[in-house]
Amino acid sequence: MTEDMDARIAEFLAEPPAAPDEAFVERVNRSVLAERKIVAAQAALWRRFAVESLGSLGIVAAFYLLWRMSPDDLSIDQLTVAPVLAASMVLFLWFGVQLKPAAAGK
Fold this sequence. Notes:
The protein is mainly α. It has helices spanning 2-13, 22-69, 82-104.
């Protein structure tokens, strides 16, 4: 009987359960959402880096193959300026297209 009385007295004297801290829960939820956005942005950044690296490698490989396919006895004097200008324009166009979205995102 004293155990029942002790349990009842302890129950009456116990502090009521604390209400959940809504501000803390909201901060944790916001930090979880921010972390998810950061991870998604990093994944997109790595994908873009991979695509641009492969594109750069493709352009370099194309120029290398064109250089290797040229005749051995061809001297620089025989080349016209047009192929060099065309290659330069393609590179500058490619750089311009790649840099425009990055500048617009700021």
